[in-house]
Amino acid sequence: MPTPTIEKLLILQDRDQKRLAQEGLLRTIPRDVAAIEQKIAGEQTALEAARAGLQQLELKKKALESEIAAANEQMGRYRSQQLQVRKNDEYQALGVEIAHSQTAIGVLEEKELEVMYAIDEARRNIAAAGVELKRNVGGHEARIRLLRERESVLQGELEAAQALVATAREGVDETVQRLYDRLISKPGFPAVVAVREGKCGGCHLKISSNVGSESRKADKVVTCDQCGRIVYWES
Ligand SMILES: [Zn+2]
Questions:
Q1: For the segment 14-28, what is each residue's pLDDT rounded down to a tens digit?
Q2: By the 8 A CB rule, do 153 and 102 touch?
Q3: How many angstroms is it from 91 CA to the middle of ligand 1?
């Protein structure tokens, strides 16, 4: 049978494990909140990038418009020059220039049309993305609120678990508490384990006969020779 000290340590260990689990759950919440906030920021950045893209397209359209206007003016000048020249070859040369200008204007106008289509598409995409973002942000924010609520519930539970741990420590010798604390500070590492078939329940290695006989003595706290855990004889 476990000695009275071991019994107290087993209760303490049980409560500590619950406390540690509670702390683990609480630690996940800020991480989850940060992940959602990052998602929102990412979606906002994407929308801003789309808006910047639209601005670029609008600038391109303006540049094309002034190029077309300049080309039209140039063509107008050729036309009035053509009215004034008397020589046939000069007239024909200006005719070639006018034809070149017309071709160039045609190419520019085609480009302008493409940019206009792109602007329309970008505007539609931005509007859709804006609606989507609004909807997503609403969902994300609701999720964050839920996480915050859960956090405060978990915080309350943790405080209750901590109070139970403090109660369980009462009456346990301070030296034993220090030894126990050193062991329990490692995650997933039970500090107090039973000896079964001469083996430590923690590291599963055979304990020495000395530890074996010591651990059977009344109210003695003995540790495994191999892993240092507190061991006790179950039966
Ligand atoms: Zn061991």
A1: 999 999 999 999 999
A2: no
A3: 107
